[in-house]
Amino acid sequence: MNPLLKLFVKGHVWLYQSSGGRRGGTMNGRKILLLTTVGNKSGQSRTVPVVPFFEGGETYVIASMGGAPQHPAWYKNLSAKPDVGVQLGADVYKARAIPVAEGAERDRLWKKIVEEMPNFGGYQQKTSRVIPVVRLARQP
Fold first, then answer.
1. CA separation (Å) from 66 to 10, 63, 101?
2. What is the residue range of 48's domain?
3. Is-contact 35 81, C-beta < 8 A?
4. Per-residue model confidence as pLDDT tens digits over 103-138
């Protein structure tokens, strides 16, 4: 990752967490959530800001990485270790990350995601991989 981008992400995460979600919780008019995964190789916690998608009472995240040819590191991490942490504003909770498999359900969700956030359609056009959609199932 670009060192400047890495620094920006780290600062964003700090601002969000230190303010209890009152600052850094939106970007370009969209809500932002913090997703904490455990490093697949390092075993260390990693927190990144991501744009969520909400549908039917469920929360989803999209592993687009701007249409890059590879999946983002956070997706690789949750694929190996699906128990994650989520902060959405002041709401902090544990969740189970469940990738929505390719097929009718993913296609239905993807259509709604692109209608609401057209940039994701552009990201899909930039890459040959199928961009994963992941449901964050809140844990008790």
1. 18, 9, 20
2. 3-138
3. no
4. 899 999 999 999 999 999 999 999 999 999 999 999
